């Protein structure tokens, strides 16, 4: 077998034999498909990553089969990229160095539903976990809008927040991610348990420092949610109303997003259900709080156009309201026009509607705001995932500079290295654990800018850098 990636000198036939009885996928078209994620949201990443492929895909069904994959990779010095649903936006699961792709969706058992927690294998789909919890009167404290294809392990390794974060905070906030197990890449791979604060050694490390096999997440009591969309004449008013709602614990929203009116032209499925050419506030409200919700909207000169129970939504053949939130908002626009892209922007905290109103005219007509409300460490924050009509890297840099100069930090969505986007600096705790768990540096190493500079140090010396 020749190397599909063009980057490895490994005898992939011998490798495949060594993996037996683990299921493998060696059809080039299928390997190429599994070498992609949603990096194409970014024209910059699309140009850089679309020709990066792995050489072989393994689909382990058990901890033992996963151990066989990792031991074989260790023996052959094969680069490894772990893949969940492949819904990441920054090429996190693209095999930059070629090699083995381990698809985790075969390890998908829900292992335990207990008092306030769920424990599942890393490849379980978030939607399946949520469905199983419903039977126990519980739900996940948060989930990404990609829950139908994203895995629980991929969320822990690559995600950060989602639907539920306005109520329950970020995934990294204490108690949300209770424990995880991760396997090392050695000749005799073992699982390691991380509990309490130690989960942060692996959370959001993009699969660089161990293969997550099992995750324990906090659950909350299930509620009957009403999917709501309210419309406003003015964007800053929609944002101010979102902030007002976020400050009302008695209402207890699960989702609050505001969306510029121009974006709503790209939501054809909402036509006839919400007033056209208006700014949106998208939210999920407990059924017994819907009257209070309507009153807040009307007091703020808005109109609560759409308020649907789950049964009514299904009968109306409408998508979930969260299909118009988080990065699904970008997806709706991209479905119609591939010239769109987006950016990730922090906002002044506490939320300041005036700052949003002041910033809007400074951004060009090629930047259309969309804010998500969440809690970080108990404080309400917002972040902007604007639609940007991409023309050039220079113009994107200019837009970034306008945001930054006005006090809105940019967490660049157009970079494929972990230190380039949300994580501004190297996380030496992650890298120290990488040295412990992956001494040969086989796991997704290209995704860390800092790894090359520390890979010859001891884990303790790498860790010491975290405090210097
Ligand atoms: C339309 C859209 C909406 C989104 N909305 C959200 C959102 O609301 N919130 C959010 O946080 N993100 C969001 N994302 C990003 C992404 O969907 C989530 O982070 C998702 O949880 C990733 O899960 P996955 O299974 O697809 O992971 P993948 O994309 O397969 O992998 C993500 C990273 O985790 C690593 N990984 C996967 N499984 C394991 C494992 N078992 N062990 C170790 N490493 C592993 C991979 O190597 C990769 O680096 C969105 C993306 C899109 C395209």
From TrEMBL:
Signal peptide (residue range): none
Keyword rRNA-binding: no
Keywords for the protein's UniProt record, in alphabetical order: FAD, Flavoprotein
Record SUPFAM superfamilies: FAD-binding/transporter-associated domain-like
GO MF annotation list: D-lactate dehydrogenase (cytochrome) activity; D-lactate dehydrogenase (NAD+) activity; FAD binding
Pfam families: FAD_binding_4
Gene3D superfamilies: 3.30.465.10
Listed GO biological process terms: lactate catabolic process
Residues in FAD-binding PCMH-type domain copies: 50-222
Name of this chain's protein: FAD-binding oxidoreductase
Provenance organism: Sulfitobacter aestuariivivens
């Amino acid at each position: 077998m020749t190397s599909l990636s063009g980057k490895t000198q490994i005898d992939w036939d011998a490798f495949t034999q060594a993996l037996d009885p683990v299921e493998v996928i060696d059809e080039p078209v299928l390997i190429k498909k599994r070498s992609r994620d949603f990096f194409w949201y970014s024209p910059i990443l699309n140009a850089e990553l679309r020709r990066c492929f792995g050489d072989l895909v393994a689909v382990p069904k058990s901890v033992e089969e996963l151990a066989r994959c990792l031991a074989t990779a260790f023996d052959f010095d094969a680069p490894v990229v772990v893949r969940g649903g492949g819904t990441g936006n920054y090429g996190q699961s693209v095999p930059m160095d070629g090699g083995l792709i381990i698809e985790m969706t075969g390890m998908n058992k829900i292992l335990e539903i207990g008092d306030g927690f769920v424990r599942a294998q890393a490849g379980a789909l978030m939607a399946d976990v949520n469905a199983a919890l419903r039977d126990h009167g519980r739900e996940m404290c948060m989930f990404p809008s990609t829950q139908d294809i994203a895995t629980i392990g991929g969320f822990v390794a690559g995600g950060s927040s989602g639907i539920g974060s306005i109520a329950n905070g970020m995934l990294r906030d204490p108690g949300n991610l209770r424990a995880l197990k991760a396997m090392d890449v050695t000749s005799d791979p073992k699982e390691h348990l991380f509990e309490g604060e130690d989960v942060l050694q692996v959370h959001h490390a993009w699969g660089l420092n161990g293969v997550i096999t099992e995750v324990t997440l906090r659950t909350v009591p299930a509620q009957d949610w009403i999917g709501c969309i309210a419309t406003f004449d003015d964007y800053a008013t929609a944002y101010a109303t979102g902030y007002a709602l976020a400050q009302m614990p008695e209402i207890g929203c699960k989702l609050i997003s505001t969306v510029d009116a121009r974006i709503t032209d790209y939501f054809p499925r909402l036509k006839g259900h919400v007033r056209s050419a208006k700014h949106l506030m998208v939210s999920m409200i407990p059924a017994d709080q819907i009257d209070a919700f309507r009153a807040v909207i009307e007091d703020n000169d808005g109109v609560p156009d759409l308020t649907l129970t789950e049964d009514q939504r299904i009968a109306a053949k409408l998508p979930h309201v969260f299909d118009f939130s988080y990065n699904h908002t970008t997806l709706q626009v991209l479905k119609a026009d591939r010239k769109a892209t987006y950016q990730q922007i922090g906002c002044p905290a506490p939320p300041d509607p005036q700052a949003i109103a002041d910033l809007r005219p400074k951004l060009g007509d090629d930047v259309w705001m969309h804010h998500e409300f969440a809690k970080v460490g108990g404080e309400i924050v917002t972040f902007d995932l604007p639609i940007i009509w991409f023309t050039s890297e220079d113009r994107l840099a200019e837009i970034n500079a306008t945001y930054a100069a006005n006090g809105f930090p940019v967490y660049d969505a157009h970079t494929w290295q972990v230190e380039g986007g949300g994580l501004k600096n190297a996380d030496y705790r992650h890298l120290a654990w990488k040295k412990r768990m992956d001494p040969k540096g086989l796991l997704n190493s290209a995704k860390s800018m800092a790894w090359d500079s520390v890979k010859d140090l001891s884990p303790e010396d790498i860790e010491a850098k975290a405090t210097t």
